[in-house]
Amino acid sequence: MNLEFTPEEVEFRKEVRAFIEENYPKHLRGVGAREDLSRDDMLAWHQILGEKGWSVPSWPEEYGGTGWTPTQKYIWSEENARMDTIMPLPFGVSMVGPVIYTFGSEEMKAKHLPGIREGKVWWCQGYSEPGAGSDLASLKTTAVRDGDHYVINGQKTWTTLAQHADWGFFLCRTDPNASKPQEGISFILADMNTPGIEVKPIKTIDGGHEVNETWLTDVRVPVENLVGEENKGWTYAKFLLAHERSGIAGVARSKRGVERLREIASTELLEGRPLIQDDEFLRKIGQLEIDLTALEFTELRTLAGEAQGKGPGPESSILKVKGTEIQQRLTELTLEAVGHYGHPYFRGFPEDGSNEFPIGPEYAHQAAPNYFNMRKTSIYGGSNEIQRNIITKMILGL
Ligand SMILES: Cc1cc2nc3c(=O)[nH]c(=O)nc-3n(C[C@H](O)[C@H](O)[C@H](O)COP(=O)(O)OP(=O)(O)OC[C@H]3O[C@@H](n4cnc5c(N)ncnc54)[C@H](O)[C@@H]3O)c2cc1C
After folding, report:
1. For the chain, which domains are there?
2. With a threshold of 0.85, does the pTM exceed it?
């Protein structure tokens, strides 16, 4: 593998860096992606990228993709991580968007793809239910045909950021008598303002409101909102999950996180010496960097495969497991590095107008909330235990 960048790629990096520096909203610099930001702030960068034509780099060019090479996409992620930008949310761009342009009707593409590309329409994912997470095919939400409509009833859970969502994509059982549970499921889009949809918050351990319960009671959705064929939703659902998992690896962000950790460990002292000089701590950072480099090469191989027309397959499970383990270790080490300054803080403190100020250096304020928040990564997108089962069967053939 040639690791040198070509002169064109070096130029591309300069162009991207200049664009981000000139256009990334000033008030969001140094803030990072957080669930307590307003809807407008979360969408601001997405909308700027939409105008530039850079919001959906991986989509086919006919739908607004950039046609970048894997190396250009890699440079793009690195430069965004460098500035800690708030990237377009995955629910539209890397989940339902690819499902719609691959399996949806022409009308559906024309109706929904522009809003996703431009960052105007916020989507949420209605897969999981209280009794159906890892065993997703056992889902109970039903969609019953009534003339030109489906009538949906059931409860979804863990619906991320549904409190802001304009539209949702839901897996519903349309044939309760199918011979296998996977065969009676359909993939249906719903306007979140439809009567009968109720979103209730779930508070998480870091004090945030990121996930919700979504209740669906006699929700009438036009039949045009069915993606592809009735009862074939499981195929589209699996296609979407492979896209979701490869996006979860977050290599560029973790590389930036390790740089920050090194800076913190150079400032914090242990027995009078910078923490970075402690052999044991240095060994932990070193091990993390080795694992991150290995993951980076795996991701580059996957990107190269995608450029040759191979969609993300079961390898995305490897990216998901390793990427999320690294994110968790990174936040653990950051919390360890800030020591007792990590204890008293919760996300969002101090609130606007408060005359209290957090104690300790600024880099310590988010260490504990980030540590708690990142426990989610080995659960969402399909738990890491389930990903290991997939790797065992689909890649190792055991
Ligand atoms: C922060 C967060 C955000 C999420 N966002 C969304 C969202 O937007 N939309 C959505 O639809 N869902 C979302 N989810 C749900 C997520 O996909 C599920 O939590 C996940 O699939 C696990 O399902 P479960 O919670 O029901 O756990 P369970 O399936 O009950 O699993 C419990 C434990 O048992 C283990 N386990 C289960 N079966 C096996 C097996 N066969 N072999 C080995 N171990 C097994 C699991 O690994 C896990 O440790 C989110 C979850 C979180 C935590």
Report:
1. 7-88 (1.10.540.10), 123-231 (2.40.110.10), 247-347+357-396 (1.20.140.10)
2. yes
Tokens 């007792």 sit on residue: 340
Mean per-residue pLDDT, 174-201: 97
Residue 23 CB neighbour total at 10 angstroms: 12
Q: In which band, very low, low, confident or very high, does the pLDDT at 5 lie, cut at 50, 70 and 90?
A: confident
Give CA–CA dist 96/91, Å, rounded.
6
- Which ligand 1 atom sits closest to the C-alpha of 126? 11
Structure tokens at 287: 């091990």
| Mean pLDDT, residues 132-143 taken together | 97
Q: Does pLDDT of 92 surpass 80?
A: yes
Active site residue 362: no
Cα(172)–Cα(186) distance, integer angstroms: 5
What is the atom index within ligand 1 of the atom nearest the CA of 383? 47
Please tell me the residue having the least CA distance from ligand 1 atom 37. 134
Among residues 35, 244, 315, 336, the one annotated as catalytic is: 244
- In the prediction, which pLDDT does 350 show? 67
